[in-house]
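Milestone M4 deliverable, item 7.
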Amino acid sequence: MAKTFPEECGLYVPGHQTHLIQLKVKANKPKFPATVELIDLETLAIKYNDIVVHLKTHDALGAQADSLSAFDNEISFAPEASLLYIRRSGPTENSSGSWRPYYLAEDELEDCSTDDEASGYFEVGI
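Output delivered:
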């Protein structure tokens, strides 16, 4: 298991934080209605189109909590992008509401306590 809290992780690789550019690049990938079940502290079971996949994220507890309180139960999964989208609020006068994306990994998660040049993450030491 990784050795850090999700909010302390600066990696932008699957299973870690999602960067705005990643969302824009993958925005047109097909999305399907989905359900979320917590398997363990890093693993979620995502069900869509009668398919169940087990994927990992450092914030599995957060994803589970968000899914339980999803606005109008709106949860979707884009399998080609490995992105889970959970609607956290509904539309208001000037907005369409907010969605929380989770960038999910198939493989074991990398430890956030190491540098990763490819993602632009460098741990800040004291």
